[in-house]
Amino acid sequence: MKKHLKPSDMAMSADCLCPIESGDLSPLPFPYEDFNSRTISPLNPEKVKNLETSLDNTLAVGIPKPASKEEEEVLIRQFLCGLKKLFEKENNWTFLQQLLLSMEHCAKCQTCSEACPVYEMSGKKDIYRPMFRAEVLRRIYNKYLKPGGKITARLTGGIDLNWTTVARLAELSYRCTLCRRCAMACPIGVDNGLITHEIRKLFSQEMGISPKELHEKGTIQHLRVGSSTGMNPLGAKDSIEFIQEEMEEITGYKVEIPWDVEGADILLIHNAGEIISWPENVGAFAIIFQAAGLSWTLSSETAGYDAVNYGVWYDDVQLSRVALRHADIARRLKVKKIVVGECGHAHKALIETADRILTGEINIPRESALVTLEDIVLGGKLQLDPRRNDFPVTLHDPCNYVRLMGIVEPQRRILRKIAPRFREMTPHGVDNYCCGGGSGFAIMSGYNFAEWRNLVSSRKKFLQILNAFENESQAAPKYVCAPCSNCKGAIRDILSYYHAGERSSLYYGGLVELIVNAMESMKKPIIHFGDQPSWT
Amino acid sequence: MGFYIFSYFCAFIFLAAVACRVYRQLTLPVHLRWEIYPVQHEPTDKLVHGGSYMEDLNWWEKKLKSSLFNELKYMAPEILLLRGLWKENRSLWWVSFPFHFGLYLMIATFALLILHALLVLGGGEAYVAGGVIGALLGGLIVFMGWTGLILGVVGSFGTLFRRLADPALRAYSSFPDYFNILLVSFFFLSAFIACLLVDPLLIGAKAYVFGLLTGGRSLNAYAPAESVFGGAAILLASALAAYVPLTHMSHMFMKFFFYHKIKWDDAPNLRGGGIEDDILKNLRLKPTWNAKHIAADGRKSWADLASSAPKETK
Prior knowledge:
Strand content of chain B: under 5%
Shape of chain A: globular
Largest interface: A-B, 95 and 87 residues
Number of domains of chain A: 3
Strand order of the largest sheet of chain A: 2-1-3-4
Distance between the termini of chain A: 59 Å
Radius of gyration of chain A: 23 Å
Order of helices and strands of chain B: HHHHHHHHHHHHHH
Radius of gyration of chain B: 25 Å
Oligomer: heterodimer
């Protein structure tokens, strides 16, 4: 196996281009050294015998191998056809300027690599360099689509285009969390995260290739059934009714969650994953909004109770469809604004990215829940006792609304008021590291991909969390505040994978739980550390 | 005369290539927002932590604030001193900074040489040579020219060495990458040697630029071909001017679009605003993506597709 891989090696015949071997990964400190020799479990040969698996021994997409030479050629033609469309305004007005600039001006200085947590934590595997996949795409474009490209490729650095190259590129576009730390670090402004995003779009929009968690079970199911969780409107209402009862039982506070209130000030949309996996988050929002006397509602329309928009990671048409659905529901409810709950990518999709899709009367004002919450907490609308949160707290910054939307301080001002033992991670704010679950990874767990995520893409975040609490005893319960559903999912998985609950007493949750936990009107705490209540 | 014709030709290529690049950027459709924070035109209370107007309650009801001062405060060290590279890739900065700053000083020297030529045209050689302005200008030309050449030689050969010595850079470098650096390196080297051997006070450079503005009429009897290195420097400088906008090295000026049109483009789409007009135009475009779930047929617009539900899964 070659030690250093070049972009042209993507076409190289090999059972596995870049395996992750025992001891390759960046080391973890005490008491996690036993994970340092761990590597990704082999794929089940029976399950993957017809799939292209030769990139790095894991699978996010799982692309079937072509059955014949003819089929292979058709697929390559489709790929080139899609690549051409990325550079046409009719097909890609959405990101054409960004793509052109980044494709044409990279100085190949590798500054981006040092900023990438996946590259760093993988033990600096070449294929995970942010510019590796960008350079593969650039070379294919220059050679196969530019006039005279096959001649100039001899000078400019060619690459062979075969099915293996194409399939590996599709897989490789799902080894980047789109955190765009690389783009922030680039002295020129080249955005290799954007190029990764465009590769994903090419495969989805032209070839119908994407991870099933994002597409079939994601946006397609979201638009058809109402939620990427598979929960239909009736199921959502039932679940919320259950949450109301639970909240009263847990906190002793009776809450009424309003549905479909026409003319309410606020339409609150949660990531529906919260309803299923973290119902206390939904309940905490309801308690706070009710106690603060806000005029608000949930929507029981199809897709109106699930803020996710997986299209933002892989498909502009799906992104537009979901965003339009959300905005139109708000228009029909005649609300004054949409408030997006603790979900980072939903923030970015609906508030920022879709800002230039929504026009006229469906351009409803949209706001982050963190801003709404800051107004409540700092505006004195709740009676709070921060002593109830007397345990170490650190804050995870979701890339989507921190680095990519500039919503940095509201959550901090809240924490400074309600969590006396709050401390920052290093680095934090716009310089943060991704949780490792970004761009859909948190919900992708087919084959052995979840293990790759826990071992590689979430590793930097795990180290950051451990460092934030390094002066605390292992036995003292600690709270990682992650105000984003996908980040929370990724952090839940790393804490579980590394047995961090048992070894370091690490717990996680959202921001609203901490607020409710500090509310004087709560008879019982909403936050528990295992079986132990956070206050008595 | 051949040198002047070549320089005019290269100047024409330079202007045409820059115009093409800029025109293309200016005529691209408005895109979806893709900014990265900190956005440097935010007012100071936001900028200190990388925040945005989206941190404010009901931000759409308020007048958005923007600070040109903050933007310039960031841009000046970024452009002149490569602040970003200093922060993110210090070891590369030590060669990249002299490389870039050497080029900037060459451009500045060229601008001063044009100013000198214009003064001569306006008041005569004796007027410029005898006055305080002439002395200051002459001194500045010599200082900037020499500083730029020394930095440029160190930076360009340092950059070349770094690209060859660092396996990570070498693995991604192809012939044009080396050619680009070599072209710049040879320009700096030839100009440096020319100045060292025959033109330490840049009198020949003044004469040549005066000639450029006067259709080949030289200030004195200077002829570039009399000095091999001087001639080479003029040819390479001219070629470089024509070549840079044709390559990725155009990032020197295209960086403006990276920052102002993408990284810092946080302009919200407000009802009835100019951005909305542009979006409506985009939504009338007719895509031809082939995946079944898109259901594009070349007749349906983006607006049609976005407001429809996918019938197919794939």
